[in-house]
Amino acid sequence: MGIEERSTLVFASGIGRIREEKPKAVRPQGDGVVRIMLKRLGGGKTASVVTGIPLEEDEMKDLARSLKQKCGVGGSVKDFCIEIQGDKRNILKAELEKKGYTVKLAGG
């Protein structure tokens, strides 16, 4: 195996910096039910994870922003899942049902 086979090209003098194209994430197909789970994090912390929302990435970020404001906590959007800090499942369920989604509390 030669050096060319093992390395990835980072810079070429004629072209400049070369960036690898990452494939765009594809939204998983769901069954139409939004699920809210409780995820245990390190240090005794918890996060409420909302999955199964049939929205594109930009719309999901807007929804996450409004949910974080309603709960008064932080959070993020990762892999088409909305993570909200703390156990806010009841607030999230009420807000998502107001928006017209079918919601289930999943997990233990």
Structure description:
With 108 residues, the chain is α+β, with helices and mostly antiparallel strands. The protein has one domain: 2-Layer Sandwich (Translation Initiation Factor Eif1). The protein contains three helices and seven strands. A five-stranded mixed β-sheet has the order 5-6-4-3-7, with helices on one face. A two-stranded antiparallel ribbon has the order 1-2. β1 and β2 form a beta hairpin. The protein is elongated.
Set out the fold topology:
Layout: H1 3-6, E1 11-12, E2 16-17, E3 33-40, E4 46-51, H2 57-71, E5 75-78, E6 81-85, H3 89-98, E7 102-105
| Biggest sheet architecture | 5 strands, mixed
Helix content: 25-40%
Would you state the CATH class? Alpha Beta
Radius of gyration, whole Å: 20 Å
CATH superfamily: SUI1-like domain
Classification by helices and strands: alpha+beta
CATH topology: Translation Initiation Factor Eif1
Please tally the helical runs, counting DSSP H or I stretches of 4 or more residues. Answer: 3
Mean pLDDT: 83
Distance between the termini: 50 Å
Biggest sheet strand order reads 5-6-4-3-7
* Total number of distinct structural domains: 1
Proportion of residues in extended strands: 25-35%
**Morphology call:** elongated
What ranges have pLDDT less than 50 throughout 5 or more consecutive residues?
none
Order of helices and strands: HEEEEHEEHE
Oligomer category: single chain
Q: Tell me which CATH architecture applies here.
A: 2-Layer Sandwich
Number of strands: 7
